[in-house]
Specification:
The chain is an alpha+beta fold. The chain folds into two domains: 8-136, Creatinase/prolidase N-terminal domain (Creatine Amidinohydrolase, Chain A, domain 1, 3-Layer(aba) Sandwich); 142-354, Creatine Amidinohydrolase. The chain has ten helices and 19 strands. Strands 4-3-2-1-5-6 form a six-stranded mixed sheet, with helices on both faces. The chain has a three-stranded antiparallel sheet with strand order 7-10-11. The longest helix is centred in the middle third of the chain and has 22 residues, at 142-163.
């Protein structure tokens, strides 16, 4: 993955905000292992690294392959080149920094790594500190929104180019490969995820992997794809037909589109994530397809394809300005196919803005 140029003021503000959280949680330092979190916090893009953030210092531990990368991308961090892939250097730095209470993300540390660190770092107390950076990442600044817009543009333009080339007899994998190629040409470092191209009855499988089925006239082709540009991603879904749309397919597509619009209509600061899900779910249920809507209505996007907030019926957390979410209701009929429409939406101070621009159908 390529990165946008690091911005000193941005990273200084992020470091300060996380240090505020350390104080609130009475932690001496935070061990950052997740690559996206490291990038958000410091600008470092290397594939191998740990960050130790204390109240006064930022220490980046990496290996010799990323020596120059660290100097270029995270000059505000003190660099430590690890000679071997063990916890020894990490423990040495913790002792040097006199770290007592060390926060860590349980979901980003293996049981083996935890055991090794706990055994060696006897002078530090390991404290589970879930979600410190993940929570900070929920709200995107103007620069992040611009990067997401760029990722949306690359994905949408790739779709426009590929849509004109789709013909009967092409396989799902061929379409997926063309999408990936065009996204690369348009500036993406990689697809945000492996594109879902589901033809005919395969469209009833929400997370289907593109296979060798050949596309035929008169059946749906569900395409779920996204681009990663400068680390930030897009996530979109559309359904196409190569001929006229059969009545049943038209019916469920119309229901999905109406549910999509109803969910977006309620998005604004203060509204709960559950309320957004319910706006779509209630309409689909009223239309007789409640049991065929088998996932939440959406999720956050940013550095990860799936991040907070989760727009599900159990999440009572309020939306806040600066969040970027997907809205993707769907109906899935086994043996027949399915329909899903997905847009990327920014929560604004007064409501929301649909960032994606492709026609819904």
């Amino acid at each position: 993955m390529t990165a946008a140029h690091a911005v000193p003021d941005v990273h200084a503000a992020r470091l300060a905000s996380v240090r505020e959280d350390l104080s609130k949680k009475k932690l001496d330092a935070l061990l950052v292992q997740n690559r996206a979190d490291q990038y958000w916090l410091t600008g470092f893009t290397g594939e191998d690294g740990f960050v130790i953030l204390s109240h006064k210092h930022v220490v980046l531990l990496t290996d010799g392959r990323f020596d120059e990368t660290a100097d270029r991308e995270a000059p505000w961090a003190r660099k430590v080149i690890r000679q071997k892939r063990t916890a020894d250097e990490t423990v040495r730095e913790l002792k040097r920094m006199k770290i007592g209470r060390l926060g860590f993300e349980p979901s980003h540390m293996s049981v083996l790594a935890f055991g090794e660190l706990k055994k060696l770092a006897k002078s530090s107390r390991l404290v589970a500190a879930s979600g410190i950076i993940r929570t900070r990442r929920l709200i995107k600044d103007a620069r992040e929104v611009t990067l997401i817009r760029n990722a949306i543009h690359a994905a949408e333009e790739a779709f426009r180019r590929v849509r004109h080339d789709i013909r009967p007899g092409m396989t799902e994998r061929e379409v997926a490969a063309k999408l990936i190629y065009e996204m690369h040409v348009l500036g993406a470092s990689e697809p945000a995820f492996g594109p879902i191209v589901a033809a005919g009855p395969n469209a009833s499988l929400p997370h289907y992997e593109a296979g060798n089925r050949r596309i035929s006239r008169g059946e749906p082709v569900l395409i779920d794809w996204g681009a990663r540009v400068n680390w930030y991603v897009s996530d979109l879904t559309r359904v196409i037909w190569l001929d006229s749309i059969p009545p049943k397919s038209r019916e469920i597509l119309d229901v999905v589109r109406a549910a999509h619009d109803r969910a977006i209509a309620v998005i604004r600061p203060g509204v709960s994530a559950a309320a957004v899900d319910n706006a779509a779910r209630a309409y689909i249920r009223k239309s007789g397809y409640g049991k065929q809507f088998r996932h939440s209505v959406g999720h956050g996007i940013g550095l990860d394809v799936h991040e907070g907030p989760g727009l599900r019926k159990t999440n009572k957390d309020p939306l806040k300005a600066g969040m970027v979410v997907t809205i993707e209701p769907g109906i899935y009929l086994p043996g027949v196919g399915g329909a899903r429409i997905e847009s990327d939406v920014l929560v604004t101070e007064r409501g929301c803005e649909i960032l994606s621009t492709l026609p819904l159908v």
